[in-house]
């Protein structure tokens, strides 16, 4: 059974005022953000919204100071100049400008995969076993603790940036080099053998899950944004399992202090059928290969309507 999607709360594009579509920035995910942002910009304009592209946080500050922005559609990705780490959210809160996506707490927490896992564990929510490696720490020892196979990835990056697979002892040296290149805290996570799934959250609704079947061994940057041979099965599960994954995704999203919209990534362990939480994306990709538009389309919500539904959450509608 498909989730119930509420009626649109806003029907007049003028209600949004002047919308800055915040994209690009200076994070490692700049190019993906520009691709997403241009899609969102075209979609909003197609529905009559007065939307303008703004590249990065300094340009956004200038536009706000000049009185050209009433609200922000944030499609920056990543941290350090990206818009998913709570920094731009805090800025907009201080300036009184409404924006899409989770607030300061949810954004800052979920940018950090390790701290997000710690919150989930405290809430009794399932996640693969892992080890934290501080900058300059003994990555090889952490891998030995977690066991093989394992993933090594920066705690505060997205889009599979800087991720390494360690399936044999011979892979450890490469993982160490990857960690050294990034220089920050690293997450060593048990590699779950099974199905990779994702659930988009829109308001209080979990959209149909998507099961991702890459042509290669794993769902890396190329499979996410470049390849055309990755399969996306939606819904990814059936009946009781589909309801269970939606409920778990909403519980994980709420536990992390998130609201608005986002995407929860999970694994289903092949041997046991257990669902395990991986991470949350608070400004998910909106490119032609992206997952949230695919899930929304399953409910008859096209790309332009999806962008509208995300944006309308920034508008306070007076109760009757």
From TrEMBL:
GO terms for molecular function: D-alanine-D-alanine ligase activity. Cell wall formation. SUPFAM superfamilies: Glutathione synthetase ATP-binding domain-like (SSF56059), PreATP-grasp domain (SSF52440). Its main location: cytoplasm. This is D-alanine--D-alanine ligase. It catalyses: 2 D-alanine + ATP = D-alanyl-D-alanine + ADP + phosphate + H(+). InterPro entries: ATP-grasp, ATP_grasp_subdomain_1, D-Ala_lig_Van_CS, D_ala_D_ala, Dala_Dala_lig_C, Dala_Dala_lig_N, PreATP-grasp_dom_sf. NCBIfam families: D_ala_D_alaTIGR, PRK01372.1. Pathway: Cell wall biogenesis; peptidoglycan biosynthesis. Residues 117-312 form the ATP-grasp domain. Belongs to the D-alanine--D-alanine ligase family. Its EC number is 6.3.2.4. Its cofactor is Mn(2+); Mg(2+). It comes from Luteimonas composti. Keywords: ATP-binding, Cell shape, Cell wall biogenesis/degradation, Cytoplasm, Ligase, Nucleotide-binding, Peptidoglycan synthesis. It is an enzyme of class 6 (ligase). It is found in: Cytoplasm. The keyword Disulfide bond does not apply. It comes from the Bacteria. Transmembrane segments: none annotated.
